[in-house]
Amino acid sequence: TREIHLAARPVGWPTANDFALVQRDLPPLAAGQVLVRNQYMSVDPYMRGRMNDAKSYTPAFPLGEPLVGGAVGEVVESTVDGLAAGDLVLHGLGWREHAIVDGGGVTKLDSVTGVSPSRYLGALGMPGLTAHVGLLDIAAFQPGDTVFVSGAAGAVGALVGQIARLRGAKRVIGSAGSAGKVAYLTDRLGFDAAFNYRDGDVHGQLAAAAPDGIDVYFDNVGGDHLEAAIGRLNVGGRVALCGAISMYNASEPQPGPNNLALAVGKRLSLRGFIVSDHFDRLPEVVAEVGGWLRDGELVADETVVDGLDNAVDAFLGMLRGTNTGKMIVRL
Ligand code: NDP
């Protein structure tokens, strides 16, 4: 079987040389384990942070060992009660064609008719939960709010905007990195307004899109997006600090927003969160988002890349924005 190892710690932007495709034999299955043939694996922005040798909320990936990450596959062999060959499972040992997983690390999935198993890595999985918890709990979204989300054409952002729309937002605004993605946000996802941050002047473009200000900012990007949002937030505005992808590949610390003092007079709340603290909420999210998906009220597009040989390219591409919706590798 084949798996991808972290060969070197990237400095700044990662390159293909930081990874190695390794062939190895599978050991025999021990008691309490299942052998899974992975069908889909996820590449996510947080993985970039785990490639650094720095203390964080998750440990660094070790060098010379297979990377890990969300994956969905079919059980081939099992020594675990309640799991049998043919079962569809979600687990945390992606970046490899076959995974030997302890029974406790496996969630059996009820295959929902008409929904690809890859959805459990996106709208019905970690990114869906992130969008839901971040918007509704962390940013305390209320119907009638005007919501701005950055990274809006990505896995999390696309769901944030649509959940806000479906739950009665007054206005939903998104930013993304190309003209095509801007059109996608308004034409396919039903955003009220969108802009391309690569055109520059994020402050000015946000002001034009939000003439009456914003009540909620869902931050996937950090940097000048966060600064522009602080400038545009109304009194009592709330920010969910979800990610800061504009800084993940910087080799030097980046400056913070230069207008943070506005948070005092505007009585703003800025709150960070980590999705793994909220996994108990996943069934609720699967029920709500799954219902909207089946009814066609919400779309959860994917950019699918085929083969483990192309998984590194999928990861590097995601960091640069080659994905619309969730980036998925089909194995
Ligand atoms: P996406 O599917 O959104 O993929 C990443 C996107 O980031 C790219 O498609 C690209 O889109 C955009 N991007 C890259 N560089 C920049 C930049 N310099 N400025 C603005 N946008 C940029 O990933 P996810 O939906 O999985 O993750 C979105 C964010 O949510 C990330 O910050 C991630 O770390 C965070 N996150 C946080 C979690 C938590 O627990 N707090 C859990 C899950 C995700 P474009 O073409 O528009 O530039």
TrEMBL record:
Keywords: Oxidoreductase. GO terms for molecular function: oxidoreductase activity, acting on the CH-CH group of donors, NAD or NADP as acceptor. Transmembrane segments: none annotated. InterPro entries: ADH-like_C (IPR013149), ADH_N_2 (IPR041694), ER (IPR020843), GroES-like_sf (IPR011032), MDR_fam (IPR045010), NAD(P)-bd_dom_sf (IPR036291). Pfam families: ADH_N_2, ADH_zinc_N. Residues 15-329 form the Enoyl reductase (ER) domain. PANTHER family: PROSTAGLANDIN REDUCTASE, PROSTAGLANDIN REDUCTASE 1. This is Enoyl reductase (ER) domain-containing protein. It comes from Herbihabitans rhizosphaerae.
